[in-house]
Amino acid sequence: STYSSKVFRVTFLTLAASLAVPLLGVTVLLDCPIDPQPISLKEPPLLTGALEPNIKLRKAERLWENQLYGPESIVNIGDVLFTGTADGKIIKIEDGEIQTISRIGHGPCGTREDEPTCGRPLGIRVGPNNTLYVADAYYGLYEVDPDTGETKMLVSTKTVIEGQKLSFVNDLTVTQDGRKIYFTDSSSKWQRRDYLFLIMEGTDDGRQKCFLFSLLEYDTVTKEVKVLMVGLRFPNGVQLSPAEDFVLVQETTMARIRRYYVSGLMKGGADMFVENLPGLPDNIRLSSSGGYWIAMSAVRHNPGFSLLDFLAEKPWIKKMIFKLLSQETVTNFVPKYSLVVELTETGSYRRSFHDPNGVMVAYVSEAHEHNGYLYLGSFRSPYICRINLQHV
C-alpha cells in the first residue's frame, strides 16, 4: 500500500509538471494584446431592497426573433420603432414590418473583421422635426431622414479633434432644440469590436501619449466639436437631464455614473451621480417617472461571487487569460445575467428587473420606455424584447 501510494504521488507530480512547465513557458513567451491596470472597486452593493433579485424580465416577450441581430439602441416616432443592428443597418419597424432604411457603411458584414467597413450603429435618438441622429462606432455621428433614409455626416471619425481622431463613437443625447449633441468616444486605443479588451484593460489611457476622448459636444449650428471630459474608463451611455442642465455619462469599467453640468451655476463642473452600481452599465435613458433606466448585461453579485470584481485587482490573471483565449471564448465564460434598474431623479434605486442566466433577455444594452412598455435592446441577441410595465 505504501509503495502504491508513492508510485501514485510520483506519477501525479510528473504529469502535473509535464503540463505546468509547457503552459508556464507558453504564457511567458506569448504576447498579451492588453496591458491591464489594477482597478480599485468598492464592495458591490447588496442585492436587497429595490435591487432584490427576481425574474421579472422573464415576463418580457421576444419580438421579431431571428429577423434582426444586435438591436443596440431603440427609439420611436409615434408607434414606429427605429434601431441599428450588428450588420450595419438602420431599421424601421412599422405595423410589425421590418424595413432597412439606411446603411452608413458597406458590406460584407457578419464577422469581427468586417465591422470597421460594415459599420456598427450604436446610440440612436430622435431630434427636432423627427430626424434621427445616429452614433456609428466606426464612422461617427450622422443625421438620418427616417422617411427617405438619406444620411448626412455630422462628425467623422477621420476628423482630427485636438490632435486625435475618434476611435469608438458610442452613444449620444440631443437637446430639445437640436442645437447641441453630446456624445461619447469610448477609447482612443480600442475599437468597438475589442470592447472586452477595453473593459479588461481598465486604463483611462493616461499611459498613452494621446488621451481618451470621453464626453464631447457637437454644435449643429457652428459645426464645432468640443471635448468636455477626458480620462474616464469606458464612457458609454449618455443622457441629458429633463431640465437639460446636466449630462449623465455611464462609466462602464468603474460601474458608476458621472454628471457633467452644461448650464447653470455649475456649468463646466462635474461630480459623481451614482457610484458602485450592481453591474456594468451600458445605455441610460429617461423614465416616465422623471428618473432613468439603466441597462446592465453583467452583474456584480453580492452576496455571491463576482468575477468582474475578482479580476479587477489581478492584472496578471487577465494577461494570462488573454494570452491563451480569444475575446469570444472569454465572453462565453462570463455568466449571463440581465439587469435593468430604474433610478430616481436624484440617483437612488427605485426598482429593478432581473433575468438570472439571461433566459428570456440576454445581453441587454438599453431600456427604452414608450407607451407603457419597456423595449429592451441587446448588442448580441437576435430580437427586441418588450415588457408591459403594468404587469411587473
TrEMBL record:
The keyword Acetylation belongs to this UniProt entry's keyword annotation: no
Xref: InterPro entries: 6-blade_b-propeller_TolB-like, Strictosidine_synth_cons-reg
Membrane topology term: Single-pass membrane protein
The entry's keywords: Glycoprotein, Membrane, Transmembrane, Transmembrane helix
Pfam families: SSL_N, Str_synth
Main location: membrane
Assigned GO CC terms: endomembrane system; membrane
Location(s) in or outside the cell: Membrane
GO molecular function, one term: arylesterase activity
Coiled-coil ranges (or none): none
Keyword Glycoprotein attributed: yes
Annotated ranges, domain Strictosidine synthase conserved region: 170-264
Stated family: Belongs to the strictosidine synthase family.
PANTHER family tied to this protein: ADIPOCYTE PLASMA MEMBRANE-ASSOCIATED PROTEIN, STRICTOSIDINE SYNTHASE-RELATED
Protein name: Adipocyte plasma membrane-associated protein
Gene assigned in the entry: Apmap
